Amino acid sequence: MNILGISAFYHDSAACLVRDGEIVAAVQEERFSRKKHDFSFPKHAIDFCLKKGGIKTSGLDYVAFYDKPFLKFERILETYLAYAPHGIASFLQAMPLWIKQKLWMKDYIQTELKFNGKIIFPEHHESHAASAFFPSPFQEAAFLTMDGVGEWTTTSYGVGKGNKIDILAEIKFPHSLGLLYSAFTYYTGFKVNSGEYKVMGLAPYGKPVYKDLILKELIDLKDDGSFKLNMRYFDYCAGLRMTNNRFHKLFGAPPRKPESRITQREMDLARSIQEVTEEVMLRITRHVHKVTEQKNLCLAGGVVLNCVGNGRILREGPFENIWIQPASGDAGGALGAAYFAWHQYLEKPRSADGKTDRMRGSYLGPEFSDVEIRAFLLEHEIPFDRLDDKELPGKIADLIAREKVIGWFQGAMEFGPRALGGRSILGDPRSPKMQEQMNLKIKFRESFRPFAPSITAEKVSNYFEITTESPYMLFVAPVQKKWRREMTEDEKKLEGIERLNVKRSEIPAVTHVDYSARVQTITETQNMRFYRLLKKFDERHGCPVMINTSFNVRGEPIVCTPEDAFRCFMRTHMDYLVLGNYLLDKSGQKPLEKDCEWMKEFKLD
Length: 605
Description:
Layout: E1 2-7, E2 14-19, E3 22-28, H1 30-33, H2 43-53, E4 62-65, H3 69-83, H4 88-100, H5 105-113, E5 118-120, H6 124-133, E6 140-146, E7 153-161, E8 164-172, H7 177-187, H8 196-202, H9 211-218, E9 219-221, E10 227-229, H10 245-250, H11 264-292, E11 296-300, H12 307-316, E12 321-324, H13 330-345, H14 370-379, E13 385-386, H15 391-401, E14 406-409, E15 423-427, H16 434-443, E16 452-456, H17 460-463, E17 475-478, H18 489-492, E18 516-522, H19 528-541, E19 545-550, H20 562-571, E20 576-579, E21 582-585, H21 597-600
Parallel strand pairs: 1-4, 4-5, 6-11, 11-12, 14-20, 16-18
Antiparallel strand pairs: 1-2, 2-3, 6-7, 7-8, 9-10, 13-21, 14-15, 15-19, 16-19, 17-18, 20-21
Helix pairs in contact: 6-13, 7-11, 9-11, 11-12, 15-19
């Protein structure tokens, strides 16, 4: 039985094909359209999933859409009526698309897919909960979902057992931890729904000087983690902004203009909202544990991409085991909707062994054969060397040890926002200059943003204060003290961004200013080629850790095809590109020609 899951029309549209309870394929539309966070109907993603499954639309038994459009429209309409006439501009802006398209989702899907079968519509947080529990390794677990907003729900928890999920309690719009965090994303001058990572990365440079003010004025937080926001300070219910003039007066200034200089004030704001968010996450998880009496916890929703908060739940929370959906945002809703249809709607049985999840490392997107890669290189007369499987790890390990930056394109593309060794840029974590160099010359992004380390799973506890595997890069953990470097008295006095260039450990390029790192563990069964590269780097150069950042530049989605990878490689200061077994040396490439049409498609934001 084939079930197609779809998420669309808000942000990060995606599609997923589940066959007899197993994921065949899952991918975001942005990877094909090359529009970051593309929210349009995921036509290309659907086409890929069907092609991967070897079927046409006629081969589908069910289609599942990740939320209920009528309930969402009800929330928008009731919210407008509550605030009218304030917000008329945003209301009029939203209505045409609703009246023309979103309200008639069933007809729209039937027309687009030429599909006459059954279409089901789980609620948004049911899709999140399904994406958290059903692919997890647990036969029984508590689940917690947190995001901006679905239809009405912004936070929910419950219990999953076997093939059923049961939501026990919810927090409703406009009270939302995700929207509170996004309000500070907007206020500190970053883009909502994409700049939240930047706020999290900026937080360690600041001090929590506004934390008490946030807890006093903006959020009424209870001991059990439930909360209400003081809506006098927010404009997202009816306006086109996240915050209003009362908010700006409370914090003493208007929002930072995007791309303007980041000051200590923004760093302090980021630290303050990050600490509040972590406190909410910890209180809720303790309450969920108390109510459900479960030992396992599954997480999904955009808020749980806050891997700093996840790390604290792992270290300080009461649950024995935690599993997080790697595509926790709206993209993962497509996967959740498909699984909801299979297990909850159709009541198909489910078994889990307590160890292995169903995500296959999240390598669920397009992959390209040796023949396809070679044909691309020959067609465009691109110089290359071919390395066999035995040569490849040693050659690349030695290049990385020489502080060369490597584009790494291998196997199937990852589903979700993280590069996990399929579409990655790799570097030497021991190099003090590598963080700034890769940020400014490769990624074209803010120099303060940290890079993640990938490490062989068996060595993770030797380098980081974490005892569990972290295959999806969703936990932040401290660097072990034995690798840290003691700072001088003068270095301890540095403030804000000045702290960036202080060498803090033996792996400085992946050690944030608070000695933390967003860790990814790699096993041979999960990703054989990446694992063997890490092993070879350890054998030859005494370090099982590498910088692993996503293969893209600022404003661009992660690369999908060999063409995407080559464009990105040529437009940045990467030194080498590895496409499967093929090694491309930047110094051996021809200069880009102005009339090279296929290269013109690459754009920088």
